[in-house]
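Appendix B, record 7
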Amino acid sequence: MKALNGHSWRMPIDRLVWADPRRRARKLLQFAEVEAQGARDLFRAAEVAKDPTLRRRFFAHAKDEQRHARLFRTRGLALRRTLADPGPDRVLGDGLTPGERGFDRLEVEKEDTAALLAFIHLSESAAARVFNGYGAVLDDDPETRAVIQQIAHDEEGHMRYSHAELTRLAPQRADQALWRARMRRLWRAYMRFALIVAAMMSRLILTLLYFLLLPPFALVAKRTGRQEAVGWHACATRRDDGGGQY
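Structure tokens (predicted):
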């Protein structure tokens, strides 16, 4: 099977994403978190897998994910140390950038083996394709490119083994499982996009409300303040002729 290459049409976007050193360091650290979470999910999948061959492959995959997390984190921290201002750990819109999403907090105990393998196959295929694309635009950072290309190569291996295990364990359901996994990934991608857009829209609306509504109220308060006398002023004498208690 040939190595997966990133989409050539996306290269200008990838160059823009990775051109900023702060964003580059931030993305690497975020990838480290995703790989670490994927390792935990795969270790759990290995624990519950009944097939001994699949159990060994899940375990080896989990160890690879742990190693990827270390590689991403080490390189990300090294880049951050070179920056005078590393910036925030996360910014709005980070989720719109393509990259490995891990297994989206899958409950592996409740997943059918065919469904889990299909989802892993598609996730690793997407990761390999995207990481190969990222590596192609990092000519000015050979160390980061070497890390990403090494991990992309591993993801291609994960893509192949998961498909082989799927066809071995569920040959008659493989195509259906892959189709359902694609629909599942599309739905989750839509939900991620919708949440990010909703967050952006709410921030925009609140900003507009702040600048459109606050100035009129401030102007009214200022005019009211000008109409009031400055300092202490005498109040009209009030006599209580009602025969109060005192």
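Remarks on this record: The mean pLDDT is 83. The longest helix spans residues 174-227.
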